[in-house]
Each structure stands twice: as structure tokens, then as C-alpha cells.
Amino acid sequence: MATVILGRKTVRVLVAWAGDTSPNLGVRALGRGSVDLLRRVWPDAEFTLIDFGNRPQSIPWGRPRSLVKERVLGRAGMMDWLSQFDLLWDTRSGDSFADIYGAERHAKMSLVHEFASQTGMTTALAPQTIGPFTSRQGRLLARRNLRRSSLVFARDPISAAASARLGRPVDVSATDLVFGIDQPATTGELSDVLLNVSGLLWRGSDHVDSERYRELIRSLIPALIAEGRRVTLLPHVLDSHDPDNDVPVSRELEKEFDGLIDVRVPIDLEDARSVIAGSELVIGARMHACLNALSTGTPAVAMAYSRKFRPLMSELGWEHVVPLDDRDLGLHAVMAQVRAPGLAQRAVDARATGRSLLGSVAQRLEQLA
Fold first, then answer.
1. DSSP letters of 320-333?
2. Residues 254, 261: contact at Cβ < 8 Å?
3. I want to staple 267 with a disulfide (CB 3.0 to 4.6 A). Which of 141, 145, 271, 337 is the partner?
4. Residue 88: in which H helix or E strand, if any?
């Protein structure tokens, strides 16, 4: 794909599938990291952020067929609305450029990307996980989006390889956008172990055996306490009408372990990052809970429920990942990582590596300026 020059005018950026109001702090991290990164290249850029909780009236993405119908009839003004932007920065919520979350989600996101490209704007797939694509239709949609993109960034080598297999080598393989966020201000609030319990995995998920996950969490908390650690539960998806949030299970466990653990519900992303930066260790199955930790220089033991974790962490030089789908691993594997020596310094090193890797994305974007 030929390089598209945006010029020196005020660049209008549409950041897709990330936001600053989502209850999912990972989605907020993608939004904040996107804005902070792109402002390095275009300090005066104007940003509009859209995601599933913040849909513009002009884009009827309730169903894929609604998008196709709007493209044909134009009653809502979708194409006119998209035409006001110079750059689509498509984050796909970090890991949704895949069909493992359902064909409909993949189709809706892919169609928005396709129609944006049809306006003539520059389209970029932000640093993210690419794949897996388990169906022929999923691969066809992915291949078209990749080939129509002016720039494609991956956040790990496996994703870069997946893109290449679909006929579009990435421009840069970097890391997650969270490393573009500035270091949070310290509040003086200090914690020992912050444990993020995923409401998604606890309630029931195709990703892992939820019963085994609940058993692991219920055995992990006493094991940490027995070693003299103070455990505080940290929801990373805040309470909302969506059942996929971490607050109810945190409150449930607080009652179950009456007086033995605390719960700290963050107000927003900045508050969460400040709390994380003041902790000794984060343990979590929400990947961005772990990435928020590493991006502030705080060690994190990741309980990985998908293939997106390890390659990204490995590129940061961070190997403290326990796969939840391995039935031979469990409490002992997690505690072994908790006890590993030198975690604090390695986390600082991982933060420096992440910032350096994301800097290569800014350098590539500067070629458009």
C-alpha cells in the first residue's frame, strides 16, 4: 500500500473501538494510549473516539446487515460523517481483529473499516492482536481490511506472522498502546498484592473452564495470605449493566473472605494506574490489568486465557505468564511466579522496552506528517 501523506493541516482522527468512558479500563487504556501516541506526531490533532458504548447516530452497527443497508441507501449519513476525518485509527479493542468473539462482531468492525476506507481517508490498524481467524469468511474479511489499510501495526510477532499469511506484511511489529500513556501521578496509596479477578472468566466463558478458574482464585487468596501478603481485589472492568464486569465477583469474594481481603474499585483509568503504580505486585487474568502494571513499572503475574498474552509479554522480556488452559498448571505455577526473584527490576526493564517498541510506531507515523 502506498504511503498516504496527510500534510500539515489539522488532522482529524477517528479512533475506533476505544474510548474514555467505557467501564472496561482496557478499552480506556487503548483510547488514552492512542491519543497520547498520535499527539506526538500531530500535536494539534482533533480526536473523536467511538466504541460499542459510544456509537455515533450515523453508523448503525447494531447488525452487519444494517451497515450494508446504510451503505446502499445512505439514510443516516454514514459516509458523509466518515468523510470528515483524515485518519481512521482502528484499535479493534486490542484483540477483536479475530473471529473468536463471534462472526458478527468481526463483521461489524470490519465493515466500518471497509466503509471508512471507501471515503478515501487514511486507514491504519493500530497495534493489536491479529487473529486467530477460524472460518473462511473471517479470513476473507480480515484479508480485505489488511489490504485496504494504509498502515498495519501488530503488537506481537505472532500477529505479524498472521498478517503476513493473509498477504499483508505489517509495517511495524511493536507492543500495546498502553505503553504510550504517561507515568501516573503518585497518590501515596500503597498496596501489596492487587488481584484482578475477571468477571467474564468467573461467570462462564468459552476461553477457560470457569469452575477451575474459580477454584484457582479461591485457593490463591489463602496461599498469598499464608505467606504474609496483603491481598486487595482490583476490578479492571467497572460495574455497569453489562454482566461482563469485575465488581460483583470482587464484592462476592470480599464477603466470602470476611475481613481477610480488601476491595479497591477505581474511579477511572488514571485512578487505577495510580493504585497499580503504588503496589508491589499485580496478579490478573484481564490482560490490560497486567499491561497497566508493566507500563508503570509494577510486576504482574498474568493468568493467560488466550494466545494473545505470551507473545506480547515475551517481546517485553516478561515471562511471568501462567496459561489457564493448561490443566497441569494452577496454584503452584502462579505462586512460583509470585515468588520469583528480581521481579521489580525486570518490570522496570519491561516498561522501558515497551516504550521503545511503541516509539517505532510514532516514527512510522511521522512519515505521513
1. -EEETT-TT-SHHH
2. yes
3. 271
4. strand 87-90
